[in-house]
Amino acid sequence: xxxxxxxxxxxxxxxxxxxxxxxxxxxAAPSGNVSLIVLPFQVRGDSADxxxxxxxxxxxxxxxxxxxxxxxxxxxxxxxxLRRQKVSDLNVAAVRNLANQSRVSYAVYGSCTLMPGQGFxxxxxxxxxxxxxxxxxxxxxxxxxxxxxxxxxxxxxxxxMAGDAVEKGALAGVQIRGLKILDPDAILMRLSVSKGDTVDxxxxxxxxxxxxxxxxxxxxxxxxxxxxxxxxxxxxVVEKPRIEDVQVNGSDAVSKDDIIAAMSxxxxxxxxxxxxxxxxxxxxxxxxxxxYYLAEVTYRVEExxxxxxxxxxxxxxxxxxxxIKTVSVSGLETLSxxxxxxxxxxxxxxxxxxxxxxxxxxxxxxxxxxSAITAYGLNHGY
Length: 382
Prior knowledge:
Strand content: 15-25%
Oligomer: single chain
Radius of gyration: 35 Å
Order of helices and strands: HEHEHHEEEHEHHEEEHHEEHHH
Number of strands: 11
Strand order of the largest sheet: 2-1-3-4-5
Shape: elongated
């Protein structure tokens, strides 16, 4: 008889889950679409349906939290994660790890105690994935006299969680620490996160990558700090050395002043590997424009003042200038090759090339000469 009553009550709970809205007096606070995972609840009591409740309570929580605006991981996906991770004890550290594995902002877990007369109490916990490893979970508790009130009770807890997630999830500000040379505002402009945003592990990793991608830092980390103003997102960085001087060795064909003027790396700025790679290409282009296609450019960094500053040195091996020995135009049948070659900017090297400045291979003239041949043919009816 008791088992039949339990099943009737349990059926009533599930029917209520389909039709019961958030109870009066409990506001459905928006959560800003914060992502969340609901883990299994431990059910204590001698009811025959305790096992069913351990899986159905998370489903009711998931439904209620979705109504509050949370993005909730599907129960089937949650169970696959638990089987894959082989988690047996849901403590705060394990739950936070599961939240990070799922790439969500929060995780919910807890227990339900069944009392004589069909009363119950729920002890739930809200765990932030972005909090430190030693941070505790936020507790929520509710007690009711009948299982018929299970879903309204869960809805009440969900509303409280939603309000706390908005309050605690919104950033009071974003700070960059460790800068000595770079302007903090210039670095903050490169980030997409700002005051008032909510963050999760995916966002934190994305923003940290943005910092690394600037090329200005030898080390960078991110943390969330609770301050008097609220949660502060803090990026702690170590700048690369300041460029004390830029030197160019081995450059004769191209002026050192022209090389330094073309570069992005400047004296007084922070060393940046990305800019240096671009500078190597810029120097190489300057030599190619003068016919030095075999020029090789390398760089080295000479640290000064215990690594706080450095001298950026570019070493150039110019090689030989490439001259044009022969210019030929193939495929001509009616037009004169000499006449066509007369239209070209690229000329063969001759005795007077040192005066006329011709005979040097220049890539920028190749496309121009190709167009000149086309124009000459069109002008002659081809």
